[in-house]
Amino acid sequence: MRHLPRKRFGQHFLHDPYVLSRIVSAIAPRPGDVVVEIGPGEGALTRPLLETLSHLTAIEIDRDLAAWLSGEFPAEKLSVIVADALEFDFGTLPVNLRVVGNLPYNVSTPLLFHLEKFASRVQDMHFMLQLEVVDRMAAAHSTPEYGRLSVMLQRRFRVERLFRVPAGAFRPPPKVESAVVRLTPRPAAEIPALDEKVFATVVTRAFGARRKTLRNALSSLIDAGGLTSLGVDPGLRPENVSPACYIKIAIEIARRGALPLDP
Ligand code: SAM
Question: What is the rounded CA–CA span in Å between residue 169 and residue 164?
Answer without folding.
Answer: 11
